[in-house]
């Protein structure tokens, strides 16, 4: 496995290759969610690149850029074991050299709501770094997790809008034994907070049950079922629970597929997000268990 730190060296790797290139962008501190993306990329491509870069431009001024968890040595061990060809590990100055001026700014309903509303500028930072990474790595297929549903929608749109010559694969959310979506930020949780953190999954389950078992379609009634679960956890503070159209991201008054149930909750100082997908054919994507079944 080659560890590459410059754009020029990454381009040089690419020049040696024939056959498809699969690419998994990450911010490191890898867990089974990331590894599921890498495994799929490995199965589907001749060459696999994983990037590890904690991108400063997607963090707000008062967010957790400086405390974001990092463990490069462990990440590299995991990626070696999975047969990754290249880890792209740039420094901040390599990605944003002095004088950097040009950003990709998604606009409209896709970014005005949800994470975009609560984290102003976040998707500008994500779109900018992701486009740069795509241009540096030149992949044929890119792999993202459904856990970050709005990110997936923004990148899907950017690929279409800018005619990027690559295919996006979105893979299910990998979950802990109690349903908590795996996330690097779970490492911030204290023992008591971790016990409470399954509340996101439990709330989504309650919303799904209101739709499936009680045949509720009124979005606010379904949302209330989820809200009740969050309100019953004294340690959890709700940022939002929303029901949105899967493609446009516009809020739905009546739940009908294809749709997303989206949730964001604060537990202590940690902010966690999660979602379920209701596909056009009426099936749900509620994620998958990691090594421990739940
Ligand atoms: N539980 C998960 N299942 C599947 N994919 C995931 C999961 N968690 C993250 N990913 C995906 O891995 C890629 C890299 O994400 P990132 O490095 O930000 O990890 P993260 O665990 O989501 O971190 P954070 O705590 O910042 O949300 C993204 O495409 C993301 O959607
Ligand atoms: C896509 C990404 C690597 C861009 O920094 C990040 O937002 C993430 O890890 O989901
Ligand atoms: N996984 C999304 C990256 C972020 O929260 O900044």
From TrEMBL:
Signal peptide annotation: none
Residues reported in the UniProt entry to bind beta-alanine: 58
Metabolic or biological pathway, per its Swiss-Prot or TrEMBL entry: Cofactor biosynthesis; (R)-pantothenate biosynthesis; (R)-pantothenate from (R)-pantoate and beta-alanine: step 1/1
Nucleotide-binding found in the keyword field: yes
Superkingdom assignment: Bacteria
Residue numbers binding (R)-pantoate: 58, 151
Active site per the UniProt annotation: 34 (proton donor)
This protein's UniProt keywords: ATP-binding, Cytoplasm, Ligase, Nucleotide-binding, Pantothenate biosynthesis
Annotated localization: Cytoplasm
Enzyme Commission number(s): 6.3.2.1
Cytoplasm is among the record's keywords: yes
InterPro entries, alphabetized: Cyt_trans-like, Pantoate_ligase, Pantoate_ligase_C, Rossmann-like_a/b/a_fold
UniProt binding sites for ATP: 27-34, 145-148, 174, 182-185
Catalytic activity: (R)-pantoate + beta-alanine + ATP = (R)-pantothenate + AMP + diphosphate + H(+)
Main subcellular location of this protein, as a coarse class: cytoplasm
Any Pfam family matching the protein: Pantoate_ligase
Subunit structure: Homodimer.
Family the UniProt entry places it in: Belongs to the pantothenate synthetase family.
Remarks, miscellaneous: The reaction proceeds by a bi uni uni bi ping pong mechanism.
UniProt cross-references to PANTHER family, sorted A to Z: CYTIDYLATE KINASE/PANTOATE-BETA-ALANINE LIGASE, PANTOATE--BETA-ALANINE LIGASE
Purpose: Catalyzes the condensation of pantoate with beta-alanine in an ATP-dependent reaction via a pantoyl-adenylate intermediate.
UniProt-recorded name of the protein: Pantothenate synthetase
Origin species: Dictyobacter formicarum
């Amino acid at each position: 496995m080659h560890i590459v730190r410059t754009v020029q060296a990454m381009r040089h790797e690419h020049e040696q290759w024939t056959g498809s290139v699969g690419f998994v962008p990450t911010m490191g501190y890898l867990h089974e969610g990331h590894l599921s993306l890498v495994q799929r990329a490995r199965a589907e491509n001749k060459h696999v690149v994983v990037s590890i870069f904690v991108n400063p431009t997607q963090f707000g001024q008062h967010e957790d850029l400086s405390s974001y968890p990092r463990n490069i040595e462990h990440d590299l061990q995991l990626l070696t074991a999975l047969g990754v060809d290249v880890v792209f590990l740039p420094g901040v100055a390599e990605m944003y050299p002095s004088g950097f001026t040009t950003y990709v700014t998604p606009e409209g309903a896709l970014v005005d709501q949800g994470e975009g509303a609560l984290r102003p500028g976040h998707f500008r930072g994500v779109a900018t770094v992701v486009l740069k990474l795509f241009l540096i790595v030149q992949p044929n297929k890119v792999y993202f997790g459904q856990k970050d549903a709005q990110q997936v929608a923004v990148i899907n749109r950017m690929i279409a809008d800018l005619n990027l010559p690559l295919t996006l694969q979105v893979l299910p959310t990998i979950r802990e034994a109690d349903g908590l979506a795996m996330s690097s930020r779970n490492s911030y949780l204290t023992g008591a907070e971790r016990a409470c953190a399954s509340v996101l999954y439990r709330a989504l389950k309650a919303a799904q049950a209101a739709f499936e078992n009680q045949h509720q379609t009124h979005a606010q009634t379904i949302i209330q079922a989820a809200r009740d679960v969050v309100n019953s956890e004294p340690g959890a503070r709700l940022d939002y629970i929303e029901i949105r159209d899967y493609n446009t991201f516009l809020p739905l008054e009546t739940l009908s597929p294809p749709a997303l149930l989206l949730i964001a909750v604060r537990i202590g100082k940690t902010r966690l997000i999660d979602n379920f997908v209701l596909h056009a054919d009426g099936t749900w994507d509620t994620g998958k268990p990691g090594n421990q079944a739940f």
